[in-house]
Amino acid sequence: MQTNWITIIVVFLLVSPLLIGLIRGLPRELDKLTYSIHSLCSSVLWLFSYGVTFWILSSFVKVNSLPDINQLQWVQQQLQASIFAWAIAVPILALLIYWLLKLIAWPIISLLTGSVHHVSRWTERLPQGLSRVTAVIINVPKAILQTLIFLLAVHIGLAYLPSSDLSKMAENSVVYDWTDQKVITPVLASAWSKELPVLGQQTQDWFHQISQEAAKYGPKDSKSFWTWQTRFDSNSEIDRTAKSIVRGARSDREKAYRLYKWIGENIKYDDNKALAIQSGNYRSLTYGAIPTFQTRTGICSDYSALMVAMGRAVGLEVKQELGQAVLPDGSGGAHAWNVVYLKDEHKQIPCDPTWEKSGNYFDNRDFYATHHPDKKAL
């Protein structure tokens, strides 16, 4: 059986702070907390100092009229012309700002750490057993937080480094799967939960309308508006990019997953195009894989068309599925997504690259609870 390092690391991150608290006891944990407060405050002050430094220098470089002081004008010219000037100016100014901020924040930091130290001295009177149990309890939030940070990093890493080993470990890790579904995905999706890209209630019959337009205005051999717009056409650049994305993939599932993540991360939803469609001004618009790849923008049908084109370029059987999407708040509208046939697993799986940024919509268990296929769609 293959070692699942995700699960092992999660267990370590959860258990290690609790064991350390049990061994140290409450007084030593509070002493450690005092040091952590100093370190955290120092780190925050440094980050803030560098942020202020870059803001000041950037503003200074953009100033059009400076006082008639040769030294100031010379410094501005150096910053505009040389990266080495920035390399010198940034650390010096950041250090000065850090010292100033530390001088301002020192009374607050001292008060906080002094209070913790006072409590630490008082806890020395507690029975050893109670001290150790209390130390374990106060370390629970730390254990949970560092575990969630790691699992969030894995969640993000799967989007940018979709290696088969990492993907398989994530799929086989019960801890990751549960946390991703119950905590990470709902939290990440909450910002988009009422703004997931769909085409609105007023365009629910849009797919049918544009098919009628194709029958009236399109070529005789066109079965729908979509084929009239050659939505699945590809080109050498799309094919080359698709092959590069899946290079090294060991299965159809991994190929499909990599394409799904790349499209979801690199294509931006075109709100203006969606509004034009909702108002009925869709005849002058362009659709399909090629314009979507070139502009890096599109609506749901464009995302899924690009998935079809890229999938075909790497030997996958991908089709576009049309229907209705149901959002978490109960609303919804016309939508398009994909179905991929995995030859090595002998089954079809759904995925929705348009919604990739809002959660896991690659062969997730509840996919068709939010995606309702239209049996009449072409």
Total number of beta strands: 6
Name of the level-1 CATH class of the largest domain: Alpha Beta
Alpha-beta classification: alpha+beta
Number of helical segments with 4 or more residues: 16
Q: Could you spell the SSE succession in H and E letters?
A: HHHHHHHHHHHHEHHEHEEEHE
Parts with pLDDT < 50 across at least 5 consecutive residues:
217-229
The major beta sheet can be summarized as:
4 strands, antiparallel
Whole-angstrom Rg: 28 Å
Q: Would you tell me the overall average pLDDT?
A: 79
In percent, how much strand structure appears in the residues? 5-15%
Query: What fold name stands as the CATH topology of the largest domain?
Result: C8orf32 fold
Architecture overview:
The chain is an alpha+beta fold and 378 residues long. The chain folds into 2 domains: 148 residues, no CATH class; 181 residues, C8orf32 fold, CATH 3.10.620. The protein contains 16 helices and 6 strands. The strands form 2 sheets. Strands 5-4-3-6 form a 4-stranded antiparallel sheet. A two-stranded parallel sheet has the order 1-2. The chain is flat, with a radius of gyration of 28 Å. The protein starts with a helix and ends in a 5-residue tail after the last strand. About 3% of the residues have low confidence.
